[in-house]
Amino acid sequence: MSGVHRGGGGAGGVAPAHWEQYLLHVRNLSAEGNVAKLKEVMSEAQERLARCLDQPGAGGGAEGEVGPTADGEWAKLAAMMDIQEHSLAMVGLLSVCLRKSTNDNREQLLNSTAMFLSECNGEQIRLFPHIFAQLCHDYASHMIKRGKPIQGILPLTKAVSKIQLRDKMLTSVHSDICMLCLSAKIFAPARDLLNVDFTDISEDASAECKYILLYFYYGGMLLATVKNFARALHFFEICVTIPAVAVSHIMLEAYKKFILVALIDQGGKAKEIMTLPKYTSYVVSKYLQPLCSPYTELITSYYSNDLSSLQTTINKYADTYESDSNSGLVDQVLSSQTKTNIKRLTKTFLTLSLNELAVRVGLANSEEAEKLVVKMIQEGSIHAKISQKDGMVRFDNNPEHFNSSEVLETLEAKITRCMALDNQLQSLTEVIETNSDYVKRSGALAYSAGATSKEDPAQSMSFSNGSGAVSGSGPAAASSSSSGPAMGNGSVPYS
């Protein structure tokens, strides 16, 4: 294993003969396909290594007792193993070493982890993807703490391909990549991940649904940062509407941003656009709004079409928006209302002076009005012409007649996408309808028509589509205790 630190193992340590026997066991059990015994052997080896590193004077021992044991033990292990041949044997041990390391010996372990994530054998790793995923989570967390998030993005991007069975499979490691991109304030590495409409969930992600929520939460933040508000709104909506039996802190923060992004992107539409879909879990619909009163008041003020009312609400809850790290989005909501009011004027007037327009939408003067109108014309949100001679704005109809070849190509692409989506929905429906647990629950509900329970079997059943369990009530695992640090535009939540 080139590039791995070869430091001493410190006092004590696990005898090399034990690791040789361990490697032999793992190799034989893997060949036999004895997963249960393999899991037992790996757990015992990890516990033995953890006890070794917890000894006084070891790298993970009592506070203030620093030694080279954590990276030293890994150096001894790495010298005995080959990444491709022994990936399964190494992953759990590397995870233990990383968790037990100290600031003095962690750098070499992080370098070794990056190499392992990039070069390990995916076929072996997929036998125990949750162990590999936990290593990825620990690695991402350490890279954040060390202020080097950008260095962790490439290894984790390669790690995703190790546990994915297909391109449209969402893994828990996707959330780590988005977290690092947010912390590094770069969007490009996450662009491809965020443009995929996932249809499968990996085993590691379904085991702890917090990471599914975090992917859509972090992804929404990244998309909002680059002003792809339509896609960001989609991500926040998914985060809030994932079936749940409890409201998680992640959902709460996502709902706040859902409101703000919806006002920015959809504020010109009817107020009903702010209502969560009917398939939102009852407990989420019931408790989210009372917990977000500063944001629900913002909706009321926005649709009053009164700039002063909106400004009053913003001033009233300024500290709340600041503590939630949502001040930037709130400022864009204020700007969005002004644009919405200008759009409304295009439906009432054919011509309007810049001075009159400024008064009606609450701008300071005609110069500000002109700048904003020009910007909206360039964005394509309105169609108008400004006369410099008399300072008048003439609002025009949309010049597009929707008969060009470009429009037809766009229409054809959308139809093709809808057909593919329909086929996919039919396939997923067949998977659900043929699931034995779903069939049993459906039958039980059919025979208990007089019972008070009205639950939909799909809301509470866990089913597998061949890529891991998909839990209808999984996000309960990400309850209010699954919160990280402040979730907002500058600081990144992680756990």
Which short descriptors sum up this protein?
Arc Repressor Mutant, subunit A; WH_DNA-bd_sf; cytoplasm; 24 helices; PCI_dom; three-stranded antiparallel beta sheet; two-stranded parallel ribbon; 495 residues
What does this structure look like?
- This is COP9 signalosome complex subunit 3.
- Pfam families: COP9_hel_rpt, PCI.
- With about 500 residues, the chain is mainly alpha-helical.
- Among the domains are: about 1-125, no CATH class; about 315-395, Winged helix-like DNA-binding domain superfamily/Winged helix DNA-binding domain (Arc Repressor Mutant, subunit A, Orthogonal Bundle), CATH 1.10.10.
- Helices cover about 65% and strands about 5% of the residues.
- The chain is built from 24 helices and seven strands.
- The chain has helices at about 15-30, 35-55, 70-80, 85-100, 105-120, 120-125, 130-145, 150-165, 175-185, 190-195, 205, 210-225, 230-240, 250-265, 280-290, 295-300, 305-315, 320-325, 325-345, 355-360, 365-380, 405-435, 435-445, 455-460, and strands at about 170, 200, 350-355, 385, 390-395, 460-465, 470.
- The strands form three sheets. Strands 3-5-4 form a three-stranded antiparallel β-sheet.
- β4 (about 385) and β5 (about 390-395) form a beta hairpin.
- α4 packs across α7 (about 130-145) and α12 (about 210-225) packs antiparallel against α13 (about 230-240).
- The longest helix is centred in the last third of the chain and has 29 residues, at about 405-435.
- The radius of gyration is 28 Å and the shape is elongated.
- Mean pLDDT is about 80; it is low at about 1-10, about 60-70 and about 450-495.
